[in-house]
């Protein structure tokens, strides 16, 4: 049999019962639409979360004091790790392909200006911060590259703190008090929004050394190293380890690369997308049952037709492919309708709730259609085999 | 062209064995016009199904054009049916969703003949049967006689060696029944072997050779001079 004839014969069978076909197709299309819609939402969330994290760049390596290890005996004996210092950070600056090293101290303090006060997050950082975290000033400049051990008392305001303290006034050059000490404002940051509940705009940035004094700290909380894009991360990590081990005598620090974090995050989010997709898959299963039911009925109803086809010289295989073809076409049409509903639904959802991230990758579309077709095949295989195996004489006698 | 030797066909119904065909010997020459008559349950339909390769004998040998068909596999049997045998049924067995033309084309579709070629062949065949005006009608828009003529067109489109008609007039009024029989006889004159199963003596007696079956055996075998 020619393929076009095969398709035409299949289509006449499907169009002969329009309502029944429409209902079967609907069953599959709801399943496919659910899969597409849910995976679109899952993928949208995936992208949204990743972009939230990568807005600071992907070439950042964080170093924290202490090493998560399990040791026998008392921690007091072995717990002699040396804290991270500004000198450590300066030493790391000499690694080739490192663009910026930022020693970080963070805390809360009262900020006062013009008689107004606000308790806010204070970041002790250095001049490399905007470059490392891709976060620039709106007006003025960031902290200058002073001697890290004796920097001037300058401050840069976060966007929210700026409006809270100064409103529409220009804060440049204004005197403010942070934790009781006097600072001069040299710039204000662009708005950045919130990430995971932290308001990145309700902040003030001052030099690390001064923050350490303010919070009475001997050491840093973290050192962030930003390397040139395209450089092998492994080599940078190796260099950091070598230098810090030489300075500390042992590995008493923990290195976390942005890439590692992203990999972990991405795999978690993939599981999320897969899980919601699987939920949609349940309704797809119901659609498959619908196809199997309709095909079983069709085979029963058209027993005489099967007998006739066999009498006219149709091979068992031809009868099998005809009925299998019907199931596949039903599923494929259902798949297309479901894709349309799913994609349209995703877009409508995005329009109704702009905050809801939605994304439909085309590979999912192809995958969903392939899934529909394989479901048609699976659901159709039993009824079709039943049709092919029928005894022609008995089949012809059926009326 | 058809040689049946010691054909037995035994059906098992429940725990009983029914001898539908009992040691049937039959030899049919090419171009013969043969009727098979007998009471219901005498095995005439079973005989027709075996000749038409729809059913296999329980034992015995069947030679169709010198080929032993009892040892053929299912696909070869289907292929032989398609090319050598045309069926005409009491209930026409037209596919209701296809037009007259498409129904006639069906055997050629199964054979994989290109659309243009088979469309022409089917149109010509239907024209010679006086259905030129009815090509694109569906079976439910045709009268009984017209339906049976479409079925005959379908049975002959592959130019088979033998036409097997099982009660072809059983579902028709006298007038259109006569038309159908005359059409079949015309085809027989073009050297197609014609075998008609009927319980209507008037039709059965028109054949040049009449077989009477009782209890699965051939009781009479008359040749008209």
Strand order of the largest sheet of chain A: 2-3-10-5-7-6
Rg of chain A is 33 Å
Succession of helices and strands of chain A: HHEHHEEHEEHEEEEEHEHEHHHHH
User: Which stretches of chain A of 5+ consecutive residues score pLDDT under 50?
Assistant: 73-77
| Order of adjacent strands in the largest pleated sheet of chain B | 6-7-8-3-9-10
For the largest beta-sheet of chain A, the strand count, sense and barrel status come to: 6 strands, mixed, barrel
Overall morphology of chain B: globular
Tally of helical runs of chain B: 7
In short:
The complex is a heterodimer of chains A (399) and B (225). By secondary structure, chain A is an alpha+beta fold.
Note down, in words, how this protein is organized.
- The complex is a heterodimer of chains A (399) and B (225).
- By secondary structure, chain A is of the alpha+beta class.
- Chain A has two domains: 3-52 and 264-397, no CATH class; 82-251, no CATH class.
- Chain A contains 13 helices and twelve strands.
- In chain A, strands 2-3-10-5-7-6 form a six-stranded mixed beta barrel. In chain A, strands 8-9 form a two-stranded antiparallel ribbon.
- The longest helix of chain A has 44 residues, at 258-301.
- Chain A starts with a helix and ends with a helix.
- Residues 73-77 of chain A have low confidence and may be disordered.
- Chain B has 225 residues and is of the alpha/beta class.
- Chain B is built from seven helices and ten strands.
- In chain B, a hairpin with a 2-residue loop joins strand 4 and strand 5 (67-68).
- Chain B has a single domain (2-223), classed as P-loop containing nucleotide triphosphate hydrolases (Rossmann fold).
- A six-stranded mixed sheet of chain B has the order 6-7-8-3-9-10, with helices on both faces.
- In chain B, helix 3 packs across helix 4 and helix 5 (144-156) packs parallel to helix 6.
- Classes of the chains: A alpha+beta (399), B alpha/beta (225).
- Chain A binds chain B through residues 1-2, 4-5, 9, 12-13, 15-16, 304-305, 307-318, 392-393, 396, 399, and chain B through 49, 52, 54-55, 74-75, 78-83, 87, 89, 91, 93, 95-98, 106-107, 109-112, 114-115, 154.
